[in-house]
From TrEMBL:
<dbReference type="InterPro" id="IPR029058">
    <property type="entry name" value="AB_hydrolase_fold"/>
</dbReference>
<dbReference type="InterPro" id="IPR002921">
    <property type="entry name" value="Fungal_lipase-type"/>
</dbReference>
<feature type="domain" description="Fungal lipase-type">
    <location>
        <begin position="96"/>
        <end position="230"/>
    </location>
</feature>
<protein>
    <recommendedName>
        <fullName>Fungal lipase-type domain-containing protein</fullName>
    </recommendedName>
</protein>
<dbReference type="Pfam" id="PF01764">
    <property type="entry name" value="Lipase_3"/>
</dbReference>
<dbReference type="GO" id="GO:0006629">
    <property type="term" value="P:lipid metabolic process"/>
</dbReference>
Amino acid sequence: MLLYKMVTMLIATLCLAIVVNAKVDKQEWWTAKHFAKNKMFPMAAGAYADTPMMQRCIRKVDKDAINLNGFLSAKCRFDEMCYVFTAVLPNHRAIVISFRGTDSGKSQLIDEALGNALFKHEWKYGGHVGRYFKMAFDNLWNSLAIQLTSFLQVQKYRRYELWITGHSLGGALANLAASWASVVFPNNRIRLVTFGAPRVGDLKFRDALERRVKFIYRITHASDPVVRIPWSGYYHAGKELWYKKGMSSTTGFCHGKGNGDCIETCEAPEELNGRPAGCAESAGWKNFISWSFRAKLKELYHYHTEYYQDLTKNSLSKWGELGCP
């Protein structure tokens, strides 16, 4: 009888621990969802604007936000330009780095996919990354490093968090920026959130980034094709908030293993037909295959820009261009 009671108490304790952990996990995900949508999304959208409208976007998050030098720009490759801005959010005690996404439309998107699928370059902080992403980041790097250094020379900013974000190509560059920052910045103060970002590097790159940066979330839409490229040998880092459709405030999301709102294929194994699978990849892959053959490039591109339409009423970039109203 005594043994029976002890076993019963042990089982009850374990069940309680599981319930508590589930609540903690659920709270973590809802907190991340709120942070991504209401804090980081206006920053990512603002990267598509001119300087006055970008400043409206960042002040939507912090009324006292400071942007000192507008945008930094450099050639990604050939005649394609890449952009980034930095800002300080004093009320959130955060420094922001936000990279603009694909700027010249579908042709740049194709260049990114092909340039990265065919070639990888070594990344000095671990693993290999897509050639196009590395070239774009390296070209922006000198100016960005100078600006960040000037921020960190101000004593009060040295204890701030570092928030890094971007959409599409901007999300890929944000991954590289977080990798660099993790070497020179306290890891527990780095937050990386991306929207519709492609895969950036190989397994070694992903593992190195996840070891150094603990707060990594990628927001994905079920029908966004960009989150599925490049294919072979590339991996996503961090946790995924995956929206099934529409991305309204009430849409369900899944986080790796599903939460009841996701279709069962979201629980697919790490590798799906030789490709690394996340929620967006596994949940929509069969539909994507049949759908993509009959879809036009314009339709693909539309899905890629269709994030949080309850806020934007249009595309992410157009919302940013209007100052995130």
